[in-house]
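QA checklist item 7 of 12: single-chain prediction sanity check.
[x] sequence parsed
[x] length recorded as 379
[x] structure emitted
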Amino acid sequence: MPDIPVAVTRRDHLYMIRIGSYLGDALRSVVEAALGASDHIVVADARVAALHGLEAVFAATPKWRHIEIEAGEWRKNAADYIALCERLLALGMDRQTVLVAIGGGVTGDLVGFAAATLLRGVRVVQIPTTLLAQMDSSVGGKTGVNMAGGKNLLGAFHQPDLVVVDPAFLRTLPEREYTAGLAETVKYGILGDKDFFFRLLEDAGRLFTRDADALAAAIERSCRLKAGIIGEDELESGRRRLLNLGHTFGHAVEALAGCDGAILHGEAVSVGMAMAARFSEKQGHLHADGADAIESGLARLRLPRRLDDLAAVAGDAIVGALRRRLTTDELPEALGKDKKAAKRGLTLVLPFGIGDCRSVEGIPVAEAAAFMRDFAHCE
């Protein structure tokens, strides 16, 4: 499978996304060959480590040390970040140490943020093991943790030195988490590649069975689309904002649900994309047929579009509590605290057509909140 270069223009930083078969000793070999380091500390999701025998892989040489963490959205917080940093320092890491994150988006964000901040910055390798992380969060250098006010409010841009993607990790991914990961994939089609959007729908059956060829093709195209955007706009000052399609509404859903993983990130983003399509239709930017096509595409990939769909996977009690919080002042607060909000209003990424998304600035928080309430109660 091909390597995908990510060339970050601002800092003249080039790294590769390696897609292939790397389970077992090959994980060590590919990292050592690319970086040439003599000291590595692996931070692995404990569940992934047990399923794939990672302790044995990294115990084979003194150049590699290995620790495990419990991953989950509820672990993506300042206290767990500090605890991880303390563990890494206790191992005697120095500025020559390479941190290697093995796990999903939470693991990648925590380890990436530790790499960005410990000793004023060390190299990091991302080895994502979930579909969402392989197609999206491991690429681009966004790191951080959640705070009481919202998601990812404490963080930094810190580009990896290598991303290693092996679709074989996905064989052990729970079904719900796997399906939720498809949300970030379809996002790339909606925001910039109409043909890719419809190809995903054609390949839906193969994706549901985790067909290796279909997965590799979808991962590669997603990574190529993101790599092109990241190289041009590392710090989200322009085109990179398009990657937030569905995220402003989706993050508000996650925040009001408690940011505890009861509603998965991909599920919230999927509903957020449906909201963005209907909001764009209401604003006169997107024809009703386009909004219908986006919603039907999400449904074809078994992704949630409405709160009722979330109730089917997260439970009536969780979504019932979410509905109640939508009617309170907590909703505009959640939208207003989104890291993309500004004093002049929200910046929303809205589809003007499939494959054509644009950033629209200055949307009043109250208007977006009123729309979310109407959307939630028109099911």
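[x] summary fact logged: The first strand starts at residue 3 and ends at 8.
[ ] second reviewer sign-off
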